[in-house]
Amino acid sequence: MFTPLKTALAGTAAAALTIAGAAPAFAQEAQSAPTQLQQQMAEAKPVTDAEIDTFITATMEVQTIVQQWQPKLEEAQGTENAATVQQEMQVALKEAVEDEGMTAQRYNQIYVMASQDEALATRIQEAAQS
User: Fold this and answer.
1) Exposed, middle or buried: residue 108 (CB in 10 Å: 0-12, 13-18, 19+)?
2) How large is the C-alpha radius of gyration of the chain?
């Protein structure tokens, strides 16, 4: 995969898989996220070229947000504020993805699909290079 995009994807793995968990019941949703994601993957539709373009742009935004929030997350670890900081970051991630025109659920689906499907990963790589 295109190196900057691959780096962005690798650096946002945890964030990407929990973007959808930005709702008020964050802790409960985060615990059920793997099961929900598996069900979503079974129902996933093919990825369009337009979605790939949106996914690439959203991934770059996600990477920027993760980098901005990383010091706050590290500082809050082990404190009562850790969950609050995590939830605030998740809201920012979800908003960034939605601002690009994609739902958090679809972003997560494409992320997982690209990590498991070499053909899709290649399509994303080629789109990122153009």
Assistant:
1) buried
2) 15
Q: Which amino acid is at 70?
A: Q
Q: Which of 23-37, 77-91, 100-114 has the lowest mean pLDDT?
A: 23-37
Q: How many residues does the chain have?
A: 130
Contact in structure between 91 and 13 (CB atoms under 8 Å): no
Residue 89 backbone phi and psi in degrees, to 5:
-65, -40
pLDDT exceeds cutoff 90 at 46: yes
The model's pTM is 0.73
Rounded Cα distance between 115 and 16, Å, is 12
What is the pLDDT at residue 130?
84
**Alpha-carbon distances, residue 103 vs 25, 47, 62, 120 (angstroms):** 18, 13, 13, 19
* Residue pair 115/46 in contact by the 8 Å Cβ criterion: no
- Nearest CA to 113 among 43, 14, 11, 8? 43
